[in-house]
User: Fold 3-ketodihydrosphingosine reductase TSC10 from Ambrosiozyma monospora.
Amino acid sequence: MAIFGNNKFPVKDKLVLVTGASQGLGYALSQKLYEQGASVILIARNKTKLASNVDHIIKSTPNASSTQFVEYISADLTIYEENIKILNYLKSKNYHPDILFCLAGSSHPGFFMELTPDDLSQGIDINYKTALYFIHALSKYFVQSKSQPGQQKHIVLCSSTVAFYHFTGYIQYSPMKTAIKALGDSLRQELKPYGVKVSTLFPGNFASEGYTEENLTKPAITQSIEGASQPITVEQCADKVLYWLNKGDHYVFTDLISWVLASFSLGFNPRNFGVLQVFVAFVGAVVARFVGLLHEHDVQVAFDKLGGFAGEGKNKKDDVKQEKVEELLDDGQTVGTTSIDSSSKATTDVKK
Ligand SMILES: NC(=O)C1=CN([C@@H]2O[C@H](COP(=O)(O)OP(=O)(O)OC[C@H]3O[C@@H](n4cnc5c(N)ncnc54)[C@H](OP(=O)(O)O)[C@@H]3O)[C@@H](O)[C@H]2O)C=CC1
Ligand SMILES: CCCCCCCCCCCCCCCC(=O)[C@@H](N)CO
Assistant:
């Protein structure tokens, strides 16, 4: 893919595991990885979507090599044992994954006091535990199992731009994406001696199914603050991710504002155009506090206009939830979308 220099993220003939692959970025990346010659295992909870994605990937890539395969595993990664079942499956098939893409995650925007305890715990589970448990359960096998000596391994985590600027509306989500950043930074040091590279994605907005869903409860003030990151398509996002991974980046950004915000807090972070980032960091040191104060003021204005935040975003969501439940009942489906709690129904189910 890289025109100049080496491709630092070769995927041909590699085995890639992608979590969060039932829709959105995970599905788009699975498709592209298969097109580029990788074998791919798609992982998420919703079996119906996974099965249809696998079918679609196979049908849309008729020139895949005879050694390539694409499969799915339906598992709830927030349950540690389900990750162990994935490990056992890999061992039983003598599969040696080269790359782990940990993309499962989603946000439920809203004001802190309006969120339910379930919203809060879903935020922790879906955004943090899915990656933490998955990598931990697979780690020993992942670092030891090599189909050839010297085999390079790669873990790709998915944080978000909000890890670099925390603002109202994402409180159920952005602290967890910061935890993912910290997890990636820690693993990068610790797994390097095992020959494992760790990269972290910091995407700006992109128009996935999850993004459409989150907009249903997103406060107007949150939409206004994040307006600097206009949604790109899922396809564009997947292309940018692969492009920058090919360049060898440890931190991957999908739009300018994400790179700028990351440059405002460089610290010990890996650099992307590091010299330029030092200048941007200087600008940030001077102006960022004023942007923060301006946003504080905007939040106060929104609060005064609404007469408080109580009840914001709730009703719209409940109506949509009810419609979805009715739709699913009509279809006779048993597994829901991310909006309807399907976690308790999911089991680890492997299908070739
Ligand atoms: N869209 C955006 O604007 C941005 C998104 N991101 C991040 O990028 C990643 C992909 O986002 P996007 O494509 O929008 O995601 P979506 O919300 O569209 O999809 C989320 C995926 O995660 C899976 N998932 C959720 N919970 C679990 C679970 N317990 N076990 C296994 N899989 C699970 C879902 O599958 P299922 O329900 O079938 O289990 C689904 O495949 C996420 O981590 C997101 O936080 C970051 C920045 C911006
Ligand atoms: C000079 C500096 C000005 C700074 C202005 C502040 C801009 C904030 C942009 C934040 C964009 C957040 C995108 C990711 C959101 C996300 O992760 C969810 N959509 C998840 O699905």
The pocket of NDP (ligand 1) is lined by residues 19-26, 44-46, 49, 76-78, 103-106, 126, 130, 158, 160, 203, 205-206, 208-211, 338, 343 (CB under 6 Å). The longest helix spans residues 274-306. Strands lie at 15-19, 39-44, 70-74, 99-102, 153-158, 196-202, 251-253, 349-351.
